[in-house]
From TrEMBL:
Protein name: Acyl-coenzyme A thioesterase 8
Span of domain Acyl-CoA thioesterase-like C-terminal: 192-305
Major subcellular location class: other
PANTHER family registered for this protein in UniProt: ACYL-COA THIOESTERASE, ACYL-COENZYME A THIOESTERASE 8
Lineage: Eukaryota, Metazoa, Chordata, Craniata, Vertebrata
Protein function: Catalyzes the hydrolysis of acyl-CoAs into free fatty acids and coenzyme A (CoASH), regulating their respective intracellular levels. Displays no strong substrate specificity with respect to the carboxylic acid moiety of Acyl-CoAs. Hydrolyzes medium length (C2 to C20) straight-chain, saturated and unsaturated acyl-CoAS but is inactive towards substrates with longer aliphatic chains. Moreover, it catalyzes the hydrolysis of CoA esters of bile acids, such as choloyl-CoA and chenodeoxycholoyl-CoA and competes with bile acid CoA:amino acid N-acyltransferase (BAAT).
Organism in which the protein naturally occurs: Chelonoidis abingdonii (Abingdon island giant tortoise)
């Protein structure tokens, strides 16, 4: 994993000597321009499913859209549909259409293409900054600060030291540990990680990009947040159904709304909940909170969830 994943001063100071830029900026979300509004993206991290990580495609699509607007606008929303599985063996082409450029709002449409067919369709909207007296937000949950919590890797190492750990869980945890995920995570309720009992469909964890990004165009931090937001998101819908082994799970769509400036390389609290599941689908909502209690991003996603049913269940 990249160096420089230690704490970065909250004041946005230059990276300390020896620190590396976040791999999310230098590699994962770096697109190669091929022509006007045409870009090529490559892959950094591929999950154990051997499919492309949806957050990477969403993040790269937003990067492509942001390259087709002026610097004085900021991303305020995106809506994506995953229409085909991605192939991790070949690059992705991003084709941008400048759908509308208005005085206040501009829309860009992006197609992510592999083998001549779209794998994702994205609409991204950008806005000129505007002040308004109409303002409100929810209240951030009260949780321990990230400094008092262990990272996901530290928790897994702790569980692996248990000689009584069931072998199938040991194999699963070793697989997670072997993945070089460019996102740092600190679960708020770590005891729930290995729990196999049904739980309320809610989870909280602190997240940030590994490495240093710094003060820069806010659109870049939005692209990084798009990548981060898809990690472990849909799994929230499975928490009440842990008695069912998962056979197939994949995202159908992904939407985001950006509310306030933030740093994706600073800790943010990711509050996830699933209000509904049914018909082999699950719906999840998410909120990314800055440490000072400001609601920075809202997310929503629906995905296909198919589980292995017992013979008695499958006949119903």
């Amino acid at each position: 994993m990249p160096a420089g994943s230690g704490d970065v001063p909250e004041g946005g100071q230059p990276a300390p000597p020896g620190d590396l830029r976040s791999v999310l900026v230098t590699s994962v979300l770096s697109l190669e321009p091929l022509d006007l509004d045409l870009f090529r993206g490559r892959h950094h991290w591929v999950p154990v499913t051997r499919r492309l990580f949806g957050g990477q495609i969403v993040g790269q699509a937003l990067v492509a859209a942001a390259k087709a607007v002026s610097e004085d606008v900021h991303a305020h929303s995106l809506h994506c549909y995953f229409v085909r599985a991605g192939d991790p063996m070949v690059p992705v082409l991003y084709q941008v259409e400048r759908t509308r450029t208005g005085k206040s709002f501009s829309v860009r449409s992006v197609k992510a293409i592999q083998h001549g067919k779209p794998i994702l369709i994205c609409q991204a909207s950008f806005q000129q900054s505007q002040e308004s007296p109409v303002q409100h937000q929810f209240t951030m949950p009260t949780v321990p600060p990230p400094e008092e919590l262990r990272t996901q890797e530290e928790l897994i190492q702790k569980y692996l030291q248990d000689p009584n750990l069931v072998e199938k869980y040991r194999r699963g945890l070793n697989k997670i540990l072997a993945q070089e995920v460019p996102v740092e995570i600190k679960p708020v309720n770590p005891s729930e990680i290995l729990c196999q009992l049904p739980q309320e469909p809610k989870q909280l964890f602190w997240v940030r990009a590994r490495g240093y990004i710094g003060e820069c165009d806010m659109k870049l931090h939005c692209c990084v947040a798009a990548y981060i937001s898809d990690y472990a998101f849909l799994g929230t819908a499975l928490l009440p159904h842990r008695q069912h082994p998962v056979k197939f799970m994949v995202s159908l769509d992904h939407s985001m709304w950006f509310h306030a400036p933030f740093r994706a390389d600073h800790w943010m609290l990711y509050e996830c909940e699933s209000p509904w599941a049914g018909g082999c689908r699950g719906l999840v909502h998410g909120r990314l909170w800055r440490r000072d209690g400001v609601l920075a991003v809202t997310c929503a996603q629906e995905g296909v969830i198919r589980v292995k049913q017992s013979p008695a269940e499958s006949k119903l």
